[in-house]
Task: structure prediction
Amino acid sequence: MKWGCIGLSILVAVLSGVLMFTVQSGHLPFRAPAETVPVVAEETAVVNQSICFQGGMLDELVNSLQKERERMEAAQLQLDEREKNLQELHASYLTLRTFVELLQKDLGTQLIQVDQSQAKNFKTLSSVYSGMDPGAASRALKNMDAEQVALIFTQMDSRAMAEIMNSAVSSVGDGGEAVAQWSDAIRRLNNTEGTTP
Result:
């Protein structure tokens, strides 16, 4: 269609040039000036009709180009809006990332403080249970979680730990089972710390 319109435009331009030359000089440009050809009304009507037909096609082409331009401008506006939204999302992401990094740093600091406090507490508990009668200590430790008992035992000297375990096994009830659970918890604790059981 594009090439047809261009070809038609060239034909109209040539015909217009021929027509203007003919009107001004009174003869056709491809004939000798001696031979004047009278302008016939039918030929003029055909040329005028061709110009009107061509003008209609040009208007249609201009209209379609205008519509295409409007469509492209609307698409550009949409792209600009999307880019703006992406920039806003990126800014929000950066803000959130900074906030999360600050929270992680704060949480890390708090965990270190909790670990230090917990280690201090288990050290204090191990001192208390080491100073107690082994029978009373074993009865009290039976009511605790095996992992907590293991943390307390790792803070004690081995002699005090052995006396408490011996007392737990000697007691009536499930003392042997409790000692087995404590021993297993100590083994797991040693494995997570990278030491041998």
Observations:
- Residues 41-131 form the longest helix (91 residues).
- DSSP finds six helices and no strands in the chain.
